[in-house]
Specification:
By secondary structure, the protein is an alpha+beta fold. It folds into 2 domains: 31-183, 3-Layer(aba) Sandwich (Aminopeptidase); 207-379, Roll (ph1033 like fold), CATH 3.10.590. It is built from 14 helices and 15 strands. A 7-stranded mixed β-sheet has the order 1-2-3-4-5-7-6, covered by helices on one side. Strand 4, helix 5 (125-139) and strand 5 (144-149) form a beta-alpha-beta unit. The longest helix has 15 residues, at 125-139.
């Protein structure tokens, strides 16, 4: 029935089960992020803000914007009240996009506008906005996200950013503007390695029996910086003034430890356990690369870049002992964090988690079920 509706261009008159649920229960689960970014609508934004100046040079932006006032928008404001970043979305679009080649009519989420002001460069806000767009697509149960962009002849930051998260140049419009499309899950016949799937089809990840699973302890002060969407996290005052810590915005993050472990490999799953206060498994990520037990401060700093919660001084102090550095991509915060008491009762842990610990497939499946990890994105 729904395929016929698409063919007849009357899909707006036919509800899927999900659309019917949304119609009668319109409230969608909130997407959490730093206090310095919030969800609003396009119509609530000041179109005279300098962040829109370049768009006004390219086309009739003001008229277009006024006709799209109902679209959802995510925004950051700097301390002087100007927009530091803006993400404008068109959810659940069903259009035949592209001419060379035609990509056909499918339900997609379109990123209409993604802009970060010069004042916020270096804050990893671009990564945060990409992550939010993907979470919005998940909420709308849309399989594809896309945007259009005129590719720059010089180094094109936007292209480099979105290609890191699986956007591919799939087609062009009549005027030559490129269309970049991202799928949230891989096709059934994919033969990519787990680490490649985690990148290309982010936030999907592989969790079959051949994938290693590890519990990773992290202290509250560092957990607050890395996982800004954690529901029990208390934002700092600087966030309400529009400021960020870049490692919290980043999808790609880094974890440092004095653990003796030497088994973690790219593609393995990392289950982060907040120690000391709430004592629960909160988040899941995928290992990208590991630097095992080095005391070379410069090597560590180069390996982590701006993705670690540690300052240069803290890294210098850590490097006095052999340090293991794990670069990873954050995929989800658990819907239902799994407490220390539950981990003890179900023999996942035998006592307080002090260091990185490998867990069995059975223990992982318990955390996966209790934590509410979305099965659509966990590929066995």
């Amino acid at each position: 029935m729904h395929k016929k509706a698409l063919d007849l261009s009357i899909e707006d008159r036919v509800f899927t089960i999900k659309e019917g649920r949304d119609y009668f229960e319109p409230d969608r689960p909130a997407i959490r992020g730093p206090a310095s970014i919030r969800r609003t609508t396009f119509g609530d934004l000041d179109l005279n803000d300098p962040i829109f100046d370049s768009l006004k040079e390219e086309y009739e932006f003001i008229e277009w914007a006024k006709s799209k006032s109902e679209r959802p928008a995510w925004v950051n404001y700097t301390e002087d009240g100007q927009l530091g970043a803006v993400l404008i979305l068109k959810p659940e679009e069903v259009e035949n996009i592209g001419t060379t080649p035609s990509l056909g009519r499918e339900k997609r989420l379109k990123i209409s506008t993604l802009k970060v002001s010069e004042a916020q460069w270096g804050s990893k806000l671009g990564e945060l906005l990409i992550s939010i767009a993907i979470r919005e697509a998940i909420g709308y149960e849309v399989e594809q996200v896309y945007l259009t962009h005129f590719i720059q002849e010089d180094e094109d930051y936007l292209v480099r950013l979105i290609e890191n998260y699986g956007f591919e140049h799939a087609s062009n419009r009549k005027d030559g503007e490129a269309i970049f499309v991202k799928r949230l899950t891989p096709p059934p016949d994919t033969s990519l390695e787990p680490s490649q799937i985690a990148r290309r089809y982010y936030p999907s990840f592989c969790d079959g029996e051949n994938i290693g699973k590890y519990l990773i302890p992290i202290q509250p002060q560092y957990h607050n910086k890395l996982f800004t969407g954690y529901s029990k996290r208390q934002p700092g005052l600087n966030e309400f003034a529009g400021r960020f810590n870049s490692e919290g915005n980043a999808i790609h993050k880094a974890y440092l430890s004095h653990s003796n472990i030497r088994k973690i490999s790219p593609g393995d799953l990392l289950l982060f356990y907040r120690s000391k206060d709430y004592r629960e498994v909160t988040s899941i990520g995928v290992c990208e690369n590991v630097l095992f037990r080095t005391a070379n401060q410069d090597e560590i700093q180069k390996f982590v870049g701006k993705r670690s919660v540690f300052s240069e001084q803290e890294i210098e102090n850590m490097a006095k002992s052999p340090t293991t550095v794990i670069r990873f991509s954050w995929h989800f915060d658990l819907k239902n964090p799994v407490s220390y008491e539950c981990l003890l009762e179900n023999n996942v842990l035998s006592g307080p988690l002090q260091t990185i610990q490998s867990i069995s497939e059975e223990d992982y499946k318990y955390i996966k079920q209790e934590g509410g990890i979305d099965e659509r994105f966990a590929l066995d």
